[in-house]
Design brief:
The structure holds 2 protein chains of 2 kinds. Chain A is of the alpha/beta class. Helices cover about 40% and strands about 15% of the residues of chain A. Classes of the chains: A alpha/beta, B mainly alpha. The interface between A and B is medium-sized, with 23 and 21 residues.
């Protein structure tokens, strides 16, 4: 299995098209414009109480807090700024579990969660908690009945992500929220890929904790937020100790320029939500339909309806994913989440939805966002179809399939 | 007053002249109307033209195409807005966006990078 060798672009080499919006997003120019004054002149610490530098910085931070809260239907006092969704996820899982550990020892999550959630749960297991990793159906959605049966009287937290970053599947968060509320269990959702892309209301959905990531919604990298419900109040044990900033939940100077950027990104996302969603849906349908019409044996991973359209994970049978990525060197794509691409194993998310081993190795994730154009999609489709055909021509498996041999019935021998 | 569709005025200079005259005759008829200078037809068109001209200057392919598309769709969406207060607010928003685009275009030029693969190079 050859790994793609990293190589920076030459001076006049044209840049590849960016089609990896789930890994990160470019900053919207309006966001950068809002941030710059706080990097140049208004550089005060927002926690300084004695001079104008501090006051203006604090006022900007509070304005940003309100912008974030408005996007998800929360109160500004329920928002805590963090360094990103990973920190928010860590705070939620470890914080809730440790705070309520006297009486509640059980945590429920799914097998398709982001690595930071799964890793935090593993740490909790080492601390003596019971963790249940719910399986998902073949379409990537969880089974509500199964979730109901899994919740025990001593369950403190259920953590299920809103939109999956690898296959784009959208979980039934509203139903899960109502279920958890009825059973008196706290509900955390990692909404990093969903905020600003689909309408979110934490009160409609009965969510108690929500993780937000700045750089997934055209904001800066290095900032995120955690939503913590006030009524009914949820308490967490803080992860980061210090001067008591952010109501003691997350000490440390709040990076005003980044917070301002996150706030601006949230406000823009709220205004542009419908427009962007329409644009992304049109382009996504174009991409999938054009590819499927041109080449056979392409599988869309994840439920076709319950999804966010901008995250498309396709498996091209009889083609190796790595080879296809190398062949598509003019398009920036990935074959799964950035966190797992370092290892040689196929994605655990695809394994969880029951994808065949060989199809899992042949999957590519296409990300479409606010700035993607029709020309980019057309170019990607053209190159993809061309390269898949070429790679299949060279594949002995494909030859055998064309001759009508059933691959699965072959008995491979050891040498 | 400003509910005359943009389409009529934008390309045909005669039509533009006619509709501005139409504006002024209506002004004479309704002397109690709100000051029309704040939402005149010509202003909206000139704002649109300036926004499109500035957006074309973005060095980044993605920002440039997005700005051009969004400005066009934004003006088209608000084609039939009648309420003078809403119009004022929209025009102010457009002016602010124009300032943002101008600044971000300069920054883009200061920190420029290579072109993307889909940008058509001018044929020599």
């Amino acid at each position: 299995l050859k790994l793609i060798k990293s190589r920076e672009l030459e001076k006049d080499e044209p840049r590849p098209l960016y089609m990896d919006f789930q890994a990160t997003t470019p900053m919207d120019p309006r966001v950068l414009d809002a941030m710059l004054p706080y990097q140049v002149n208004y550089y005060g610490n927002p926690h300084s109480r004695t001079h104008a530098y501090g006051w203006e910085s604090e006022s900007a931070m509070e304005k940003a807090r309100k912008q974030v809260a408005d996007l998800i239907g929360a109160d500004p006092r329920e928002i805590v700024f963090t360094s990103g969704a990973t920190e928010s996820n860590n705070m939620s899982i470890k914080g809730v579990a440790r705070f309520y550990k006297a009486k509640k020892k059980h945590i429920v999550t799914t097998q398709t969660e982001h690595k930071c959630v799964l890793d935090s749960c593993r740490i909790m297991e080492a601390e003596g908690f019971d963790v249940t990793y719910l399986p998902v159906k073949n379409n990537g959605l969880i089974d509500l009945k199964q979730l109901e049966e899994t919740i025990r009287p001593d369950t403190s937290l259920v953590s299920i992500m809103t939109v999956n970053n690898e296959i784009g599947v959208k979980q039934p968060i509203k139903e899960i929220g109502h279920l958890c509320r009825s059973k008196n269990v706290f509900f955390h959702t990692d909404a990093a890929q969903a905020v600003g892309k689909i309408p979110i209301n934490v009160n409609d959905w009965k969510v108690d904790l929500m993780s937000i990531s700045g750089h997934k919604l055209y904001g800066p990298k290095g900032i995120g937020a955690l939503y913590l419900r006030r009524r009914p109040r949820i308490r967490i044990e803080p992860l980061q100790s210090g001067g008591g900033q952010e109501r003691g939940l997350r000490s440390g100077t709040v990076p005003t320029p980044l917070a301002v950027g996150l706030g601006a990104a949230c406000e823009i996302a709220q205004q542009e939500l419908e427009y962007d969603h329409k644009h992304v849906t049109v382009l996504a349908n174009r991409l999938v339909q054009k590819i499927m019409a041109a080449i056979p044996d392409v599988v869309l991973n994840g439920d076709p309806d319950q999804r966010y359209p901008g995250c498309i994970n396709l498996s091209f049978a009889y083609v190796e994913g790595e080879s296809l990525l190398m062949a598509l060197k003019d398009v920036a794509l990935s074959s799964g989440s950035a966190c797992t691409s370092a290892s040689l194993e196929p994605s655990y998310v695809l394994r969880a939805i029951g994808t065949d081993e060989d199809l899992a190795h042949s999957s590519i994730r296409f990300g479409i966002g606010r700035f993607t154009t029709e020309d980019e999609v057309d170019y990607t489709v053209e190159k993809c179809v061309q390269q898949v055909k070429r790679l299949r021509e060279m594949s002995p498996l494909w030859e055998m399939v064309q001759e009508g041999i059933d691959i699965k019935s072959i008995k491979w021998t050891q040498h | 007053m400003c509910s005359i569709p943009l389409r009529i005025c934008s390309t045909d200079p005669d039509a533009r002249g006619r509709c501005i005259k139409r504006n002024s005759t209506q002004r004479e008829k309704n002397s109690t109307e709100v000051n029309m200078a704040s939402c005149s037809r010509a202003q909206v068109i000139s704002l649109y033209r300036m926004l499109m001209k500035e957006s074309k200057q973005f060095p980044s392919y993605n920002y440039r195409t997005y700005a051009l598309r969004r400005v066009k769709d934004g003006f088209r969406e608000n084609l039939h807005v009648d309420n003078p207060k809403t119009l004022d607010m929209l025009i102010n928003q457009a002016r602010e966006n124009l300032a943002v685009i101008k600044r971000q275009v300069s920054i883009g030029h200061l920190y420029s990078a290579q072109k993307t693969i889909v940008e058509k190079e001018p044929q020599l």
